[in-house]
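Backbones bend. Shown next:

***
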Amino acid sequence: MVMSTREVIIAQAKRGRPNRRIRLEEVARRCGVSVSTASRALAGAVGVRDQLRAEIIEAARALHYAIPASIADRKVILAASSVAMIDHSRNQFTFHVLDGLKERAQALGVELVTRPVATPDDEVALLREASDDPAVAGCLFLTLDDDDVLTLTEGFGKPIVLVNGDDPAMRHSSVTPCNRSAAQFAAQHLLSLGHRRILFLMRRGRRTIERRFEGWRDALTAKGVAGIEDLVVEVPDWLPELAEEAIAARIRDRGLDFTAVLTAGDSLAYGAIRGVERAGFNVPADVSVVGMDDLPLSAFCSPPLTTMHIPMREIGAAALSLLLDDLSLATLPPRRIELACNLVLRQSTAAARAVRHEANAANVP
């Protein structure tokens, strides 16, 4: 009978002397990797593929190697906004971030304990629990109000990483998409199609969204677009129906004084499309619409949405790796990691009306 690699490792470990100390070199040799790679994998440091890391951890456990305390029998508490988790209209982004985080934790053999938080009191209780429990290695915060977290965690003695968060003072490490440059790139795409009157539809509140606003503003300012402040449309929440009403009201009150809309999130883009159509116009013939997130629904809405792909799952995975880096290398200063985003072209964008008319006129004999 042919044994699997795992069975061979376990069998060889059982045949060894019970009290023999297993060296890291042996774990590395069993997996066909260098000692430094095995060390980084067991410490939870970055630079090791998830599948390889999982194989090294499994081999170490089968050989009864003493896995470093930074990862063995430790748990990480994840504080996640209860509002975003229970509300389907708001939780799609959060769901994908959490999915990537949980997959990464499983690959690393880290116990991830999720705690829903809704108020500062919830966060205080969570921090007290984390501080009192020696098995807790650190905390991840995926919440809607970074400022509350930054105030409450001052002086907290264990590593903290903000997930899709922003700490301007760099007191804690954080992982976000490249919000500012992503929005700038999306706006530049619309500018390249001849659009100048590009609305920015947003819900204010979080610094991550303000970075997207800044990216849109950067692109239009660089192109010399005047009256930018008149192109900002705000809604009180992320619900598509609020975006629909805001765009329909803009057209009703002022006419079609824009040719494109860039939204701070895909959910607002869905509403913007409906608002344009409700006013009797067409997307993209009259108005182009671009979102940010690339939620799965965006490929199936009508028309399919051009959007910036935000690496949601990777944000969660990178946050856990960053936390484990802080455990392994305590001398590292807080870091801000920004993940690259890319434009996904679909059918909700087209050349601006004036550009199309000029092209048609040029082709008339």
Residues 5-62 form a domain with the 434 Repressor (Amino-terminal Domain) fold (CATH 1.10.260).
